[in-house]
Amino acid sequence: MIRRHAHRDNLIWASGAGAAPSPAATVGDARQASPRKPGGWEPAPAAPRTEDTVSRPSVQDTAPLAPSRERRPPHRARRHVPGTVTQPHPLTNRSTNEQLRTYEQGVRAAFDQIVPTLKQISALHCEPDFTQRAQQLAQRELGFELPNGILDDAWIAGLDLRRLYAWSLFETYRRMADDFFARDPLRGRETTAFDEFLQSCGFHLMDITPCADGRLAHAISYVLRLPIGAVRRKSYAGTLFDVEETVEKWVEVEHQRFREGRPNTADTSTRYLKVVMYHFSSLDPEHQGCAAHGSDDGLAARAGLERLHHFRQAIENSFCCGASVALLLIGLDTDTDAIRVHLPDERGEMDLNQSVDAQALYDQTHNLTPEAARQGILEAVCAAAPDTADEGMVRLVARLVENNLSQIEYVRTLQGGGYPDAGHAERFMAVGIGFEEIQLRNLTYFAYLHTVEEGAPDLDVGCRIFDGLNVSHGLPIPVVVRFDYHGRVPGARERAVERARRLDRALADRFRVRVQQGLLHRMLVVRDCDAGSGLEVVSTSVDPQPAGGH
Amino acid sequence: MIRRHAHRDNLIWASGAGAAPSPAATVGDARQASPRKPGGWEPAPAAPRTEDTVSRPSVQDTAPLAPSRERRPPHRARRHVPGTVTQPHPLTNRSTNEQLRTYEQGVRAAFDQIVPTLKQISALHCEPDFTQRAQQLAQRELGFELPNGILDDAWIAGLDLRRLYAWSLFETYRRMADDFFARDPLRGRETTAFDEFLQSCGFHLMDITPCADGRLAHAISYVLRLPIGAVRRKSYAGTLFDVEETVEKWVEVEHQRFREGRPNTADTSTRYLKVVMYHFSSLDPEHQGCAAHGSDDGLAARAGLERLHHFRQAIENSFCCGASVALLLIGLDTDTDAIRVHLPDERGEMDLNQSVDAQALYDQTHNLTPEAARQGILEAVCAAAPDTADEGMVRLVARLVENNLSQIEYVRTLQGGGYPDAGHAERFMAVGIGFEEIQLRNLTYFAYLHTVEEGAPDLDVGCRIFDGLNVSHGLPIPVVVRFDYHGRVPGARERAVERARRLDRALADRFRVRVQQGLLHRMLVVRDCDAGSGLEVVSTSVDPQPAGGH
Hints:
By secondary structure, the first copy, chain A, is an alpha/beta fold. Chain A has 20 helices and eleven strands. A six-stranded mixed β-sheet of chain A has the order 2-1-3-4-5-6, with helices on both faces. A five-stranded mixed β-sheet of chain A has the order 8-7-9-10-11. In chain A, helix 16 packs across helix 17 (about 390-415). The interface of A and B includes residues 266, 453 and 495 of A. Chains A, B: Its main location: other. Chains A, B: Its EC number is 4.2.1.1.
């Protein structure tokens, strides 16, 4: 069976900064989310299993989607039949695709291994040498040992599988994050080439706001194939980024150019490029689009564009000497990972009905030579651009489209013709500020926030999603509370720790009942982003002395 | 009687950013606050009453303070006997003192007129032409009419004096604020002379953090006699200012110098001057000092100095090219308004045991010519400065000391030898971001915050103070919720309004019982600080449709 037909509605951002769907719709959506059965999880294989996925039937063979397919414009409706992509596109990077897939599957496998392993351990718990055998099993299957205390106490009141589950999940996350910062597996620090290219196009910083929906968490490293160290990613629900915060960032970047000549000197005529990436679903446009905008593509695009204009206007109104910024709006089809790009004219105006479509270009240039394909893309971008479009912007967009072709192929071939999880399949909630290491789709439900008071609507939606995914089966909701800090600033670490603890108390207070039942566990972490180091665990609620709220 | 002997403990900031007094102490302190009796309020006279206050007995004639006086160092213990100041100091500005006093007494009188007027109105409320007579009285005594609805409904369930009180207080505050922004009564916008002087001393911005204690609310306009438009005031509990936020401000100022040459070009060798003003009480040092530091002067000074060093280190660590800042630490005696200044050496190091004392200098230079007095001050500042102190810093400090002499005289003469309110006498709570117009001592309990979650300890202390001042007499706590915004930034007003409403909901939730009993009322206001306009009232809980929480 193709799991994407589970008809789970996407609720990731039923509300957020400025978005206000009706409460009824939000609750209703959350209830519709068909829960995953913990026992039925299929752990992703540690080794490639291309043959399995490629042989899956295409979505076009299934009845339920047929009616909605007919309503879609041609280039959005096309769902690729896996059998036809044996011939790769001339411009796709197959070795990178392999590396990305290995990383993705390895991380997913580590998370998906937890439930089957704990099931086995649970079955053992009446054995006399239980602790020892459980640890051997955990070491073999998960790569780490479990806390002896929980295992040793199993004879008294039974095995506390909720705590074990949360503990294992937190440990898996911690190891993934530390590996990410130690090894740079997605080569996000190899920034020189893209930095130079970006400046040659007339931009000194690319600041991207994808929607905070977990299905866009891989926007930089996978969808656009950019080194994460070379761009700024700042996700917001419904792409409604914080204008004031972005103005502050602009000032910081300009100041650095003036003072340090980084990335170039202030007199170089490059601009700050602000990009918004909204999203839609070609397969189920009315349910799996952006929840913050009621799955209305047009609304999502307009809202992103309006926010971009507000930012530009804020800069132009607040600073002299012709201060301005460049703007760009990108749409992402979360079913295929294909992008469509709305090119701006010289004043940053964009026509929402006019875009260049990477999916269509993939097919149109599939049988050409690399040179001809590249030329075809450039011409298509030019054709989609307003007359007064900036030449550098056209070149940048052509590059983004070309990069995206690899991701289109990645999804078509390596993921079996499409993502198995159109709806929610997150493993944990990420709450606070940071999470640079989360570069995989649908692994994490994000709630970027400073306080529960400001982020309560997002947290509520998250909890309802995990009520369906976990709580309904008796599994707890794992929440990572995180604040990154600048270690160069004295006292910053202590303030980050204090902030994490305060947030944790507010969280435990808001979700009191789940916490009391052991159905919501938290791990508090901080990270010194100046040092480039891994995570520092402050505390966890699965420790003998919990983080708070119990 | 001298009201300062009411022995109210100062609790304004029993905790805050980083300060952590024991909860027991905080609660205990709050309970000790001896409440003011509404009926017993003495409204400040609208016209000067110098003769009344000067004739009051000196504190030195009263027994209770004698023991603690002996423990004080000589120049802190001296409490001036009013009779001796008939001869003003040669460097004080008597006409400014008169203007400042007229403004202060006018504002206080407006607030203090509310309770007596409502008492009179209450006495009328069984009369047949009640509404009309009440409005005449209100117009005559308060300068505005009351809401007809509340008056008209008095025959049903009695006069709702709680709502009337909150309504009148909010209206009085609103009128005071609008007058402040329209008229600039403290001439805070006359900045040119001080700007030029400051730059001649080697500084391009003076950024002052007084403690957020209401007894330092007049630090800029009164204590230091600086135009508020020429300095940045950012108050924090216990002076524990936000290092990250101040680094951002530094970047903004540097960027403006680079881009716009304001206030001077970036290549001018001036520095950003960060000043911390801690406080202490010479009359009751163990109870009326800084509550955030347990009334321990040394601790308050050390904490301020440490935060200053953290800020400098953050700048030096985070930016290249010899980036640094200048630091200055000032102590304020909240009983006399005299300052003591700790001068830094070339590296910004300060000796907490070494300071120049304005109170002592007032007396020492009292009988000299203006020139000789000025010279005496300069020499005293030089003597108190480290060998490597910056010449510009010495000149600046000498100016601050000279300015402060006028305030010392203001307190000695015009207030009857000292402040009548050593403890709490605030009229309302100010919650949120803004409040530039609050330039009077002890008028307002401040809680600068973005969310209740972050500012809860300060709000709790504030509510306990007003429980003593108001609630214990049946009067509600008036809370002004305020967020300033930059009107140049599109959408900023809407976000400020939304933020005020969110904060109001959280506030009404935290103090549910008081709200339900009509004992906590809120007015929500926003202000466009780019436009320099007055307040915009968003809503109030005294309106027929309250702001929330009822």
